[in-house]
Design goal:
single chain, mainly beta
Length: 177
């Protein structure tokens, strides 16, 4: 599939993030997220095992964060969860893991995270205004079982307010049983 996804409406709000993929605002509704998402891109889509994939989230932090200190954004975290329904009918969920929302290598999920500010400069954490969050990752074909994978991400400030939350579901082909 190429081009903008068909964005359905749920409770009067767009349910999907502007994207070439099937990314949805979940489990927090779009209006309750502080990060206003312009676009999310996953390449290649669908993700192919044994090839590096990239995720780029474009958006800006809404005006109601103006009074928050930079330190509050520096202490933001994101939670990542993966659920899979395997070809043979089994299911499995990788329990939620929480990481600092900062530029870093994340060994537990074999990914790298980078953040760019409105000038395009790489920075350590989100700032007010425009931001682009870049993630790259990889799945080993030999250690990935074929199935329908749902990836969920939920980013929050230390006080619990949601920065962004989304899910994407897709089939990944692998050789593991």
């Amino acid at each position: 599939m190429h081009g903008l996804s068909d964005c359905s409406v749920k409770d009067g709000q767009p349910y999907c993030i502007p994207s070439d993929d099937n990314v949805t605002f979940a489990p927090v509704s779009q209006e309750d997220q502080l990060f206003s998402t312009y676009y999310l891109d996953i390449a290649p889509y669908p993700i192919i095992a044994d090839r590096t994939f990239f995720v780029k989230l474009h958006g800006y932090l809404k005006d109601d964060l103006i009074n928050d200190l930079d330190a509050t954004l520096a202490d933001a975290t994101f939670n990542a969860t993966t659920h899979v329904s395997y070809e043979n009918g089994r299911t499995y969920t990788w329990g939620s893991a929480t990481f600092p929302l900062r530029a870093q290598a994340i060994a537990q999920i074999r990914e790298y995270l980078a953040i760019r500010d409105m000038t395009g400069r790489y920075v350590e954490h989100l700032s007010l205004g425009y931001n682009a969050i870049l993630i790259d990752g990889w799945f080993s074909y030999w250690f990935t079982a074929s199935g329908n994978y749902t990836f969920a991400v939920d980013a929050r400030l230390p006080d619990g307010r949601c920065l962004f939350a989304f899910e994407v579901t897709q089939w990944i082909e692998g050789a593991a049983q």
